[in-house]
Design goal:
Helix content: under 10%
Shape: globular
Distance between the termini: 31 Å
CATH topology of the domain at 149-286: Jelly Rolls
Number of helices: 4
Number of strands: 29
Length: 423
């Protein structure tokens, strides 16, 4: 495991973190309650409040000025409409920065149907420094062009039986820059590998490719000549198909593809159809070079590989592999996606090495990283090759539930801090 001291790059990098804001006990209907959390960072600039089951809560924001020593603020609350605090929101409201040990306050009232009330589960996303560079934000790094066209439309005829792993591939016919990978009925699938196959050698300075000849018995698909292969997963493991659903927001950027290049997906059907299901996917993008080329996508499995017992926790550890990440590169995680069972979990911590990516200890509702959630992007500390990236989650339900989660991000040059782009 890599050394646990923060590198110079980590110390100068702008970070985006999450502040837990869950209270852990039932709040009765018709009663107002203060809910607050103390940031342990030198500076925290909140910009997004996300509340689980937002329609069941009346929420007011209490703007506490920096440096205030009041136990409870005397200011009037600013109403936060459901449209602002729900999972999928495109609205925003100005929020004041919070200094070290400063409090972020909400005034909440339960308005749901349960007379016994419910616990309030929420979190706040924001920048961990005063000088964040908006051009390097994950929202920009993972945004897609609304004018993207269909580059590949692969409609599988072969049926994948339940629990069986299969490989599906599609070849592009012209030079292109992919931006989205969309899997039909995505929740029914688990993705265990995404491989870019190029017919010509990639340019210098990009992500690492493995050169494969026709005689290599490890090849999955026979072609003449040579090819260069790269897995987009920084370590072997399973990603939820939800990461690539039609309504998911994450980008898919394998770099420029030339005619004859292809994308291979290794997937497993987990749906309910006993006779299996055909696998279909599309790749969207541009046939013109983008004005600004954004970094290549890197994924990492954070799945437990087993059911989590009721009211029990699971710790998942992944380590980026140097042969997949590239020597001299590190990984910045831009976000997470938990599969359709996200509401069954609370995320208790997220760490790079021994450094938490939370602004304070506490629980973040799993729905904060459902595929439908917005404004939930991160900029983590740089994860070095073979360094622990740790997620701790708790099952909040009364039955066994499988935890399937994936992290997405991009590689950076450890010397310059610049994102890696494959030409």
């Amino acid at each position: 495991m890599a050394e646990m001291n923060r590198t110079d790059l980590q110390l100068r990098q702008s970070r985006r973190v999450v502040l837990p804001l869950s209270n852990g006990r039932n709040l009765l209907p018709g009663e107002d309650h203060y809910v607050f959390s103390r940031s342990q960072l030198e500076h925290f600039a909140p910009d997004r409040v996300l509340v689980k089951d937002a329609h069941r809560w009346s929420v007011g924001y209490l703007p506490v000025p920096t440096g205030s020593k009041q136990d409870y603020p005397s200011v009037d609350p600013i109403s936060l409409p459901t449209s602002v605090i729900q999972e999928r929101s495109v609205e925003s409201i100005p929020l004041l920065p919070v200094d070290r040990c400063g409090k972020f306050f909400l005034l909440v009232r339960y308005v749901g149907p349960d007379q016994a009330g419910e616990p309030f589960e929420a979190c706040v996303f924001g920048a961990a420094s005063e000088s964040s560079d908006p051009s390097r934000s994950p929202m920009n790094l993972n945004s897609t062009d609304s004018r993207a066209v269909v580059l590949v439309d692969s409609r599988g005829e072969e049926r994948a039986s339940r629990g069986a792993s299969m490989i599906f591939a599609a070849t592009v016919s012209s030079e292109c820059w992919p931006e989205r990978l969309i899997i039909d009925d995505a929740a029914d699938w688990v993705v265990s590998d995404v491989v870019v196959v190029r017919r010509s050698a990639p340019g210098p300075g990009g992500m690492p490719f493995r050169r494969v000849s026709v005689a290599d018995p490890s090849r999955d698909i026979e072609r003449s000549g040579e090819e260069w292969r790269r897995s987009l997963l920084a370590q072997e493991g399973d990603l939820p198909g939800d990461m690539f659903a039609d309504d998911a927001l994450g980008a898919f950027r394998p770099g420029r593809l030339m005619p004859g290049d292809s994308v291979e997906l290794r997937v497993t059907y987990q749906g309910e159809r006993r006779d299996g299901s055909p696998f279909s996917f599309r790749i969207l993008g541009s046939k013109k070079m983008p004005t600004v080329q954004l970094p290549d996508s890197v994924y990492m499995s954070m799945s437990a590989g087993c059911n989590v017992l009721p009211h029990s926790s699971v710790q998942v550890t992944s380590r980026p592999q140097p042969d997949r990440l590239g020597h001299g590169n590190g990984l910045v995680v831009d976000g997470l996606v938990i599969d359709e069972r996200a509401d069954c979990f609370a995320v208790n911590d997220l760490k790079v090495g021994n450094f938490s990516q939370f602004a304070q200890s506490g629980d973040v509702p799993g729905v904060a990283w459902s595929r439908r959630a917005t404004g939930n992007s991160l900029i983590t500390d740089v994860v070095l090759a073979e360094m622990d990236f740790v997620l701790v989650a708790s099952n909040v339900r009364s039955s066994n539930v499988g935890f399937v989660c994936g992290a997405y991000g991009h590689a950076v040059d450890l010397e310059t801090g610049e994102p890696i782009v494959t030409r």
